[in-house]
Amino acid sequence: MDTEEALPADPLAVRLARDLDGTFEAVVVSHADLVYGLALRSTRDPAAAEDLAQDAFVRAYRALAGYPPERVRGLHLRPWLTRLTINLAHNRARDRLARPAQAPLDDAHLDVADEAARPEEAVLRRESAAAWRARLAALPRHYGLAVELRHVHGLSYAEMAEALQRPINTVKVHVHRGVALLRAAYEKEIQP
Amino acid sequence: MNPLPSPDLMRTAAPSDLAPTVLFRVGLADEYLTVESPVGPVFVARNGRGVSATAPAFRADASDAFEAAFATRFGRPIRPARRVDRSEVEALVAALREGRGRGVRFDLRATTAFGREVLDAARRIPRGEIRPYGWIAREIGHPAAVRAVGSALGRNPVPLLIPCHRVVRSDGHIGDYAWGSAVKRAVLATEGVAPDEVEREARAGLHYLGSDTTHIVCWPTCHHARRIQARHRVPFTTVGEAVAAGYRPCRDCRP
Question: What distance in Å separates residue B20's CA from the closest CA in chain A?
Answer without folding.
Answer: 9
